[in-house]
Amino acid sequence: MRTFFDPRQLAHAPLQELHNGGFIDYSETPRRAEAIGRVLPGLELPANHGEAPILAVHDAGYIDFLRTGPARWAAAGRPGDVMGYIWPIVGRRRLKLDRIDALAGQYSLDASTPLTADTWDAAYWSAQSVLSATHAVLGGDRAAFALCRPPGHHAGADYLGGYCYLNTAAIAAQAARKAGAKRVAILDIDYHHGNGTQDIFWDRGDVFYASLHADPATDYPFFWGHADEVGEGEGTGTTLNLPLPQGATLEAFRAAQATALDAIARFGPDLLVLSFGADTWDGDPISDFKLATVDYATLARDIAARGWPTVIAMEGGYAVDALGANVTSLLSGFGQLV
Ligand code: OKP
Ligand code: ZN
Q1: Which residue windows are transmembrane per the record (predicted)?
Q2: Which is the closest atom of ligand 1 to the Cα of 279?
């Protein structure tokens, strides 16, 4: 299986995040990508597909904020990384604001996703990695893996959040649509609900979003991922949320995944994007499911058995020392490790 990663993805390295009323070391560290890279000896540099496939998903003003926000923050005399601390309440009229403090609130979902001077470049190359994997699959490969880091599934068309800046799974799905795939499905098996991906395709009938995740009653992102969120308009019925209680083991997770795969089969995609998080692993420091390393091979075999050409985009997973084995296990389930 071809695997893609660019070392420029490592430069993004916020020091701290707001957590439970204090600051802690940032969980989404470059060491995550290094750990995965070590078990993928065939890692390839992505081609540069440019900004157009990013702008096909994301708002131009938001992209400008990602690119210029850190310099504007510094120019306003703010030390440290850009972090929103005031938010327009949902439903208020859209204001055209220029102050960086206002923009940071407008363009962010939470206060635990700092924007640094290196973030844009890292997120840009994370997107290029998933685009290269997408083109490998569109070109006939059965599956390809993008070592996306920073991850993507919490980022919406015009907001960052949950360690995510550019929604790599959405960028892949949209690029596949543009290249001729009529219907694309996204299966998100990260521990957390992919609110950004859901939001981007909420009213679209051509992209199916199915997610298995910890119940938002107990876990981030809290406001999204409930079972009654099914999409709207032309997208009614092409969003499927399967929340699971904390403590879930392979049995419950695999059954829920089968439900998602059956729904995706009824939808009939030309291509699947798999948002893969290894934060469902038993020892993950910020999550509460109980999957074992070998379980990822089982889950991957169940997915591969459906036969859809599959782009795999890395999402979360914060037990750095276990990441290499967990990713290796997942890819082995597709039957053709590097
Ligand atoms: C990203 B991905 C405050 C709690 C916020 C954010 C979790 C983001 C997970 N520190 N935690 O889905 O793995
Ligand atoms: Zn996660």
Answers
A1: none
A2: 13
Ligand 1 pocket residue status of 19, Cβ below 6 Å: yes
Ligand 1 pocket mutation, candidates 23, 192, 219, 287, criterion most atoms within 8 A of CB: 192
Residues with active-site annotation: 154
CB 269 within 8 A of CB 185: yes
Find the helix or strand (DSSP H, E) in which 208 lies: strand 207-214
What interface predicted TM-score (ipTM) does this complex get? 0.97
In the chain, the domains with their CATH numbers are 2-54+116-333 (3.40.800.20)
Measured by CA distance, the residue closest to atom 9 of ligand 1 is: 162
CA dihedral 132, 145, 15, 156 (to 10 degrees): 70
Query: Contact at 8 Å (CB) between 295 and 266?
Result: no
Q: How far is the CA of 139 from the centre of ligand 1 (A)?
A: 34
Residue 93 has pLDDT above 80, yes or no: no
176-186 pLDDT, tens digit each: 999 999 999 99
